[in-house]
Amino acid sequence: MMTTLSGTGSLIRLILRRDRIRIPVWILAIAATVVSSVASFPGIYADADDRQARAALMNNPATVALSGPGHGLDNYTFGAMTANELGGFTAVAFALMSILLVVRHTRAEEESGRAELIRAAVVGRHAAMTATLTVGLGTNLLLGGILALGLVSSPAQLGLAGSLLFAASMTAVGVVFTGMAAVTAQLMEHSRAATGLAAALLGLAFALRAAGDIGTGTLSWLSPIGWAQATRAYVDGRWWPLLPALGLTVVLVITAYVLRTRRDEGAGLVRAGLGRAEASGWLAGPIALAFRLQRGVLIGWMVAFVLFGLFIGSMADQAAAFVAENEMARRYFSRLGGSAAATETLLATYMSLMAMVGTGYALQATLLLRSEEASGRLEPLLGGAPLSRLRWASSHLVATLAGSVLVLGGAGLGAGVVYAGTTGEVVDAAAVLAGALTHLPALWVLAGFAVTLFGLAPAAIGLVWAALAGVVFLGMFGPLLQLPEWVSDLSPFAHTPQLPGAEFTAGPIIVLVALATALVLAGLTGFRRRDVR
Amino acid sequence: MTTAITVSGLEKHYGRTRALDGLDLSVRTGEVHGFLGPNGAGKTTTIRILLGLLRADAGTARLLDGDPWRDATSLHRRLAYVPGDVTLWPTLSGGEVIDLLGRLRGGIDPQRRAELLDRFDLDPRKRARTYSKGNRQKVGLVAALASDVELLVLDEPTSGLDPLMEETFRECIGEERRNGRTVLLSSHILAEVEALCDRVTIVRDGRTVESGTLAELRHLTRTSISAELSTAPTGLGELSGVHDLETDGTHVRCEVDTTALDGVLRHLSAAGVRNLTSQPPTLEELFLRHYEQDRSPSSGVRTGA
């Protein structure tokens, strides 16, 4: 056993050296976001009445599905507010950090061929994974510790016991997904596929707890995020729901090691067969190539978004039932127009959220421009074929444009068809689909920003993910933190009419499309003038 | 005499690093031109400027009577390029990549494609991810050779090929030359350059240090002479152009400047030659002279167009 681990220490140091910027940035970004949000609570919700007014808003299915089961709503302390409204997304952030870290140092290394160089030295078969898991665990523990410390010392003066439990439950989600990514990295031959599968499982975990929290609560127990929220931190805290997280992590890690032993270096358990000897007739130009390269990513996003849409559509019905039964919710929504308004608000909220998440697809697709260039695959295309830079880049953008319509359209259609099935009104399907598609211009603005960076500052293109994180943050927590309007308005999604339910206005749509076009043109102009590198 | 490529005084900086420092290159239409130099000499940077991927900081570059940066697209219709490290899309098969690159250039001759796949012994059905270095290189070569173009730009195209495939490559380039194509061949394999190239350009530290036919370059260097004489020679060391003289009784070994060869041979025959071997400088020696860092990069004649 020991020989399969030799070299682990050196590899840990290598990972820390390579990630000496990345890991601290993740830790600081997550901890600072959560702690600064909590720190602003006392200023916004000065007394118990303000907090209870907020709690009343949290008691409807749209927010329950988005945040959590709502423990402690009857005595909505700063702590309860933290756990209920920030917990779910903090857990997702921990999990994303862990997934990216694990895949980056396992499958991505094998795929690039660098792992081969390492393995040929005195390094055991399991050293790379052990080193990665060690760093993953350490990063999660460090982030948890800093988070607990920050929460205790914030102006909201959260209790020590509650903060420790909250931070531990977030860490537990991170650790579970460290194990999850270790398994998907064994299954998939491609790092992108390994990340995608782990992220899909994270989405499933979120969906299970959303469905469970709206319904009877049973489904939430199938989700690591549900376990974290079941600790009822800051309310009547209990540690035992973290046991299943521990158990699942052990199972996942053992599975990963077993799978690692059974497969060849560089191979996945899902193996690709022979390809075509000749290209099919349609693979003849840059647009076809762009679609071909995006195919896997696009299909993955579409399947996920159609499934999410179906789930949201079916939830809308439950939400209507909930509003009909719940006195407080009924009073809240009667002002807006009854249970129909409740479901429409829920659908609109979700279409907006899905559009923000779906921007992830558009950015992934746009960033393909840069990865094609950096990998050297652009060279034979631009250097050896009569293909202009403009035509090559716009081909990728056309594919991205079409892909974004398909991804958001899939979500809108999925939700709309199910919703129309419950209301019996076909027109409702079209209304929900329109609600999804109205968000496209806002999505294009972010994709356009990516093109601008690609053309003018290709080395800094990763910034666009930070921009997306900021947009999601503004969309999710803007209302909770009562941010000034000009701050919330920085997000392009803040200007999109919230359909169905709200009034459609063309003005903001036109402005967003114009802005996206300008950003794309700036990027393409820059790309035409700079070196290919 | 028309030229396919004319480069003069080319400069390119990357921050403080000076990649090209006044490089000159002239390739005549219809010739196979060897482009030699140590690693980091600026060969690939030059090629990337010629392909319009990089913009030169100073100097001029003309390619097939066009501006490599401004007319990139129309020029690329008339050339094909093989990089030294062919990177492919991992999920596409080799056959798909060959067809894609061919179609981008306006179509590919299926018969020529099949013939080249057969000659290079390449399985087009395998996904690019599973190809070895040599097989990825073959994909690039087949895609380039199957296209009907005037100019082939090859940047260390045979790296990773086995000797048999290397031989096939030489045959193919020979055929291309007979068909009147121009080839710019950057290479480290001297035997390959010696066998294929009409003229060569040697660069170092971003500058051209030698350019000309192999015969012209040989003229600039020394021939090694080994002779068995009837009597011990005298005064040989005083002759100009004689270097590294070793005498062992009647046996003489020395290096002679090619220009001084005549005088030295007269001197030797005066002493009575019993046996004589003379070796013209190999390209290897030519090359090593320029690769050695401590030598000054002068003494070059520029026999451009």
From TrEMBL, chain A:
Highest taxon, organism lineage: Bacteria
Keyword Iron found: no
Keyword annotations of the record: Membrane, Transmembrane, Transmembrane helix
Transmembrane stretches, start-end: 21-45, 86-106, 127-152, 164-185, 197-219, 239-259, 297-316, 347-369, 397-420, 432-456, 463-484, 504-527
Organism name: Halopolyspora algeriensis
The name this protein goes by in its record: ABC-2 type transport system permease protein
From TrEMBL, chain B:
Keyword match Flavoprotein: no
UniProt record, GO biological process: response to antibiotic
Nucleotide-binding keyword on record: yes
Membrane topology listed for this record: Peripheral membrane protein
Location in the cell: Cell membrane
Sequence ranges assigned to domain ABC transporter in this UniProt record: 5-230
Top-rank lineage group of the source organism: Bacteria
Pfam families noted in UniProt: ABC_tran (PF00005), DrrA1-3_C (PF13732)
Alphabetical keyword list: Antibiotic resistance, ATP-binding, Nucleotide-binding, Transport
GO cellular component, one term: plasma membrane
Family membership: Belongs to the ABC transporter superfamily.
Protein name, per record: ABC-2 type transport system ATP-binding protein
Species annotation: Halopolyspora algeriensis
